Amino acid sequence: MQNSGPLNGIKVLDLTQAMAGPMASMTLGDLGADVIKLEPLSGDQTRNWAPPYMEGMSSYFLSANRNKRSISVNLKTKAGMEILKKLVSASDILIENFRPGTMAKFGMGYESASQINKGIIYCSLSGYGQTGQNRDWPGYDLTVLAYSGLLSLNGEEGRSPIKFGVPIADITAGLFSAISILAALHHRDETGKGQFIDMSMLDANFSILTHQALSYLSTGNNPRLLGSAHASIAPYQVFKTSDGFIAVAVGSEKLWQSFCSVIEREDMASDPRFRSNSERVQNRSELVDEINREFALVRTGDIFRKLLEAGIPASPINRVEDAVNSEQIKERDMVRQVQAPYGDIKLLGTPFRMTQTPGDVRLHPPMLGEHTHEILESLGFGKEEIERMASEGTINRDVSTDRKNSD
After folding, report:
1. Which residues lie below 8 Å from residue 128, measured CB to CB, with a gap of 6+?
2. pTM summary value
3. At what angle do helices 78-90 and 383-392 cross, to 10 degrees?
4. Which CATH class is domain 11-208+357-406?
């Protein structure tokens, strides 16, 4: 597929694994960048995070590695380091998520990379950052959520905090990394200078405490665990109906008046406990009790239609199955059928909708080392040299050729 994305011509060297780094590079790939995923001979660890599988591939790996080409190299060999140097020389961006200092030990920290390519934008994504007393701590989604304070906000009073169902700390750090890289690209366009990006998962996730951190800084009190409720708006949470659950967000006084009318409780609109949002937040328990009594008498679909007709934000609690198969997701083309050497697969679409340079799903998630020989030839390595490196264990064999032969 022809590449017409806004980052067309930008080359990204992706040395990351798991979710945070791959999310950053995939975002750039969706926007048109040529992303080369450099993997060890054993592959990105998430290739083995299964089941479930899709056409023999880890679904977890597939979720964050579209729009990339894979080269598999043993960087512990002299020839492997020569490949890395040539890739750095040919790249605009390098992203890595090893522990701080690991790339320097390899001989390819930012100082070394910038000597090879002075315009390189070098993003080091780590759990706790390149500085500070915790810099050497291993950082995973759950532990960063815990340290940042975010995990303490998720759950219900008197019960254990609850992790979100996707690695939200990884995803947040990946998106902040992509934003930083795009800003650095603009700076390079203006000045011709590359730079080093120190992206910390902790910093990224601490920053999204937003109003909850400001609540503590303004009062000295820790935010309460409120389940699905909002700390500063009421009613704004999930309610149980006679046959399920529904999320309702009453974010203004006008909506509150409409809400009371929909549930046929106009008396609540004039109740001194509930007349303003401030009063409803202060008397949240009584408010929720009143609404729960009303919602226990109605079916989810019926009350949802009434709320929607009144312009009140609401939604049934869709399962993943419901969301994937919903008409809105289909009409927005957010589930895509993609052809790959290992079979036809379904992937999520890209959210980048732009009139001139939209994002796209151009490439299937690659097999391990699928493009090794193709990439090496583009770097100037001859076929005999490539074959020698394969026989010596520096790179893998030509996976695409092996696949064709086996077919």
Report:
1. 134, 135, 137, 139, 144, 147, 200, 201, 202
2. 0.92
3. 130
4. alpha beta
